[in-house]
Amino acid sequence: MTDLTLQYQHNSNPDRGLATAGIFLVKALLALPHFIITSILTNLTTVLAYIGYWVVAFTGTMPQAVHRFAEISFNWNSRMWAWIAGVVDPYPPFETDPDFAVSFPLPRPESPSRRWAVAGILLLKWVAAIPHLIVMVLLGVGAVVAMWVGFIVAAFTGRLPTGIQDFLAGVLQWDLRVYAWIIGFTDEYPPFSLDAAPSGGQEAPGTQ
């Protein structure tokens, strides 16, 4: 069982105004600064991870600097997408390590596989991830539909069904797990699972 797990809580009292903004895509516009930042972080992480493959292949150790940069990137992405999806209401701060209700802990690999690192150098991990990538496209479509339905429900009722929240969190977790495997931060092939669940089974009003 992979230890890469999205940490979040159910949003028990979603903001109706934000839900309405989500219906009309205003949230996507508000998230534009974060989109720019996460795009840069993700691209740089991919480049650094490729360098990390070489280091691991020759030394068996993942560079601390590469891990730290990836950690920042993964968590920034998790906060942004969770906010867009309505799983959390407070706008994500422009910080690397904020106290936020959503996170994606990314432990530094203790003994990364040199063979998988060589596979990464040769881009074979992308080939091995094709089944996941196909599923992720289909899940992405489903997530957009579920998100929009959730916005409508929240705008009219002030409640966001926990099933929708867990599904959206599961899709996000799936994406992050696959990307973490591809770029070498875990050697365990990611499961085909939407097994996301709130931390401690708690609910939080709006979350913080």
Topology at a glance:
Elements: E1 10-11, H1 16-23, H2 26-30, H3 32-59, H4 64-85, H5 114-121, H6 124-128, H7 130-157, H8 162-182, E2 203-204
Parallel strand pairs: 1-2
Helix pairs in contact: 1-7, 3-4, 3-5, 4-8, 7-8
Provide a concise account of the structure shown.
The chain has 208 residues and is mostly helical. It has helices at residues 16-23, 26-30, 32-59, 64-85, 114-121, 124-128, 130-157, 162-182; strands at 10-11, 203-204.
Please work out how many helical segments DSSP would assign: 8
Q: Span from first to last CA?
A: 29 Å
Oligomer: single chain
Report the helical percentage. 55-70%
**How many discrete structural domains?**
1
Q: How does the overall form come out from the CA principal axes?
A: elongated
How can the largest sheet be summarized? 2 strands, parallel
Percent strand: under 5%
Give the structural class: mainly alpha
The count of DSSP E runs of length 2 or more, i.e. the number of strands, is 2
- The stretches of 5 or more residues where confidence is low (pLDDT under 50) are none
Give the strand order of the largest sheet, numbering strands 1, 2, ... along the chain: 1-2
